[in-house]
Amino acid sequence: QGQLVESGGGLVQPGGSLRLSCAASEFTFSNHAMSWFRRAPGKKRELVAFITNTGGTITYADSVKGRFTISRDNAKNTVYLQMNSLKPEDTAVYYCNAPRRDLWGQGTQVTVSS
After folding, report:
1. DSSP strand E in 3-75: where?
2. Does the structure show a pLDDT above 90 at 1?
3. Integer Rg of the chain from CA
4. Strand, helix or coil at 36?
5. Buried b (16+ CB within 10 A) or exposed e, 20-51
6. For the chain, what is the mean pLDDT?
7. Which of 72, 84, 85, 105 could form a disulfide with 6 if both were Cys (CB 3.0 to 4.6 A apart)?
8. 100 — alpha (psi -120 to 50), left (phi > 0) or beta?
């Protein structure tokens, strides 16, 4: 079935940076596109970023373009989300997703506050 485990969340001040990691196991990671989603309190789940299996195609939500960067290391079975210039409205639980397997991680909390 597979497993995804996120890490790297935490509390950061506005303007700060965080890097999220998602370690995949029990499936052939290099064959799968990956996504990062987030859910803020009281809001619907939002697709933040998407990357194809080779990294050849990457897309971002308009709200994070120019600030967030998705990347992957197929040798390490890991996808990353580098988040810069963080804003309070980026506060959410961030989830890693393998869309073709409908596989989700447990989520990692990101809180942007002074």
Report:
1. 3-7, 10-12, 18-25, 34-39, 46-51, 58-60, 68-73
2. no
3. 13
4. strand
5. bbbbbeebebeebbbbbbbeeeeeeeeebbbb
6. 97
7. 105
8. alpha
Whether residue 68 is predicted with pLDDT greater than 90 in this model: the reply is: yes
Written as one string, the DSSP assignment of 64-87 is TTTTEEEEEETTTTEEEEEE-S--
Give phi and psi for 102, each to the nearest 5. 50, 45
Sorted by sequence, the CB contacts under 8 Å of residue 66 that are 6+ apart come out as none
User: How far apart, in whole angstroms, are the C-alpha atoms of residue 83 and residue 114?
Assistant: 17
- Report the alpha-carbon distance of residue 84 to residue 97 in Å, rounded: 21
In the sheet with 3-7, reading across from the earlier edge strand, the strands are 3-7, 18-25, 78-83, 68-73
